[in-house]
């Protein structure tokens, strides 16, 4: 039976919205990550059979199939195709799934899966052009803002503002500890940037974490979505800019080329969930992927569950019986940021490196997605 392995993974640092990547085009940022990926893997660009990138706001500099334009900018031969997909926040994780499926089917041997998002240069919802949901949709479902979904999840699971803020403080602490100890250095490609005044420099450190984040600081923030609610900017993910990618290959091709894979993909799942609560999908996706892999949550050494809002991973822990000490051990999107289309492979790259650092065997990645969906992936370190 064919097996899909991950040869290499790399990401940019994640920039704050209007931060270090404010002057960097997303197609060019993605191109730099693609170049670094194949260079680290030691494969020729022309060997890649498809470039699949996730991107949510596919308009402006992210329009016109950014996967194709990024590959061309990166100097891939013109016969290497590219396609851009949108499964909301899980777009690049879905890119991994599609790439793996193409390899398993025997259609391809080598695929790049990744994603990019500049929430500075292409603001969230700009692709919607002010359009409202169809009346035929709203007649069937209550369509609300994700922040209100997070409020409802908090209410349903009984999470207090203090619990959410405490989770957010821990996310910043873990992220800052990871940066201070150099845990992220190997996975990040140094990206050249130029400021408005023409100053040039290389950036390779995530911009999001705030060392001064305390319970007292977060307690002073106003709620964003509901006057008497619990969700603030402090316990929600940051709007961010970034790009990431992994190189997928059949095990046979890796052996033929003499390459040592970092991990193999054990199982994949994707589910739909309640489009009103919207953010609960990772619970069902996790249960489904564990069943597919014939494994249990206790078999996982590390898990990355995207911190879209603090109640998302907290509810996931309650419903899956996961261990908080294995969850987002080096911080999550509350501290590090959430560049929508890039987050899936950004977390995959971090999971790969954390398994290597810790000597763990199995890793699980799950991401909630807009309109009520989620992907989950289990990998095994090799």
UniProtKB/TrEMBL annotation:
Gene3D superfamilies, per database record: 3.40.47.10
UniProt xrefs under CDD domains: thiolase
Keyword Lipoprotein: no
One Pfam assignment: Thiolase_N
Ranges where the Thiolase N-terminal domain occurs: 4-252
InterPro entries: Thiolase (IPR002155), Thiolase-like (IPR016039), Thiolase_AS (IPR020610), Thiolase_C (IPR020617), Thiolase_CS (IPR020613), Thiolase_N (IPR020616)
GO molecular function: acetyl-CoA C-acyltransferase activity
Keyword flag ATP-binding: no
Active site: 89, 338, 368
Domain of life: Bacteria
Keywords carried by this UniProt record: Acyltransferase, Transferase
Domain Thiolase C-terminal residue range list: 260-381
Protein family per UniProt: Belongs to the thiolase-like superfamily. Thiolase family.
Protein name, entry field: Acetyl-CoA acetyltransferase family protein
Organism: Planococcus koreensis
């Amino acid at each position: 039976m064919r097996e899909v392995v991950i040869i290499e993974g790399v990401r940019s640092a994640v920039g704050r919205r209007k931060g270090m990547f404010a002057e960097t085009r997303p197609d060019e940022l993605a191109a730099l990550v693609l170049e670094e990926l194949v260079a680290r893997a030691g494969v020729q660009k022309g060997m890649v059979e498809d470039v699949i990138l996730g991107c949510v706001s596919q308009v402006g500099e992210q329009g016109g199939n950014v996967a194709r334009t990024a590959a061309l900018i990166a100097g891939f031969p013109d016969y290497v195709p590219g396609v851009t997909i949108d499964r909301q926040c899980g777009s690049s994780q879905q890119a991994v799934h599609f790439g793996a499926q193409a390899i398993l089917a025997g259609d391809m041997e080598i695929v790049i899966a990744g994603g990019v998002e500049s929430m500075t240069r292409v603001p969230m919802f700009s692709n919607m052009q002010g359009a409202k949901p169809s009346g035929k949709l709203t007649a069937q479902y209550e369509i609300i803002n994700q922040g209100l979904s997070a409020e409802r999840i908090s209410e349903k699971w009984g999470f207090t503002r203090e619990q959410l803020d405490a989770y957010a403080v821990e996310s910043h602490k873990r992220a800052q500890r990871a940066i201070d100890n150099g845990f992220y250095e190997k996975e990040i490609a140094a990206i050249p940037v130029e400021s408005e005044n023409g100053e040039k420099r290389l950036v390779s450190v995530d911009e999001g974490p705030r060392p001064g984040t305390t319970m007292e600081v977060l307690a002073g923030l106003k709620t964003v979505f509901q006057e008497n609610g619990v969700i603030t900017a402090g316990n929600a993910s940051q709007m961010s800019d970034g790009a990431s990618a992994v190189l997928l290959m059949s095990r046979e091709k890796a052996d033929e080329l003499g390459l040592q894979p970092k991990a193999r993909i054990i199982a994949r799942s994707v589910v739909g969930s309640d489009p009103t609560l919207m953010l609960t999908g990772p619970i069902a996706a996790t249960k489904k992927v564990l069943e597919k892999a014939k494994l249990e949550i206790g078999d996982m050494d590390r898990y990355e569950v995207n911190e879209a809002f603090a109640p998302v991973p907290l509810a996931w822990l309650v419903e899956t019986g996961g261990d908080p000490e294995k969850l987002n051990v080096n911080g999550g999107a509350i501290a590090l940021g959430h560049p929508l289309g890039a987050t899936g492979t950004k977390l995959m790259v971090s999971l790969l490196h954390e398994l290597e650092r810790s000597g763990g065997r199995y890793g699980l990645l799950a991401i909630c997605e807009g309109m009520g969906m989620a992907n989950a992936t289990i990998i095994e370190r090799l």
